[in-house]
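seq:
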Amino acid sequence: MALDKTGCHSLDSIVSHAFRCRGQFCEETASRPFLHVNRCNKAKTFYDGMKVSKQGDYDIGNGYFMNNYMMEKVIYYYFFYHRKNVSNLVQGVNIIFA
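struct:
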């Protein structure tokens, strides 16, 4: 996986790598991964392309709160598997970010 100019893996490359290594073969499957991101996070560019679906202050006890965005991204991924040649599996992966 290639690093971006900040020395971090981009979200696209991490998701792409994860789907290539899954071991499941799916066609036309839509997924909505989400994560909680602190609103004061300085590495916000890592989450470019994700949309804020909610924001909230979550009580985690002892007077502490998490001030987070809930971010999500729709990912459509297609796996084309050629049974004759397993090495084509990685080359046949096509990930489309909507």
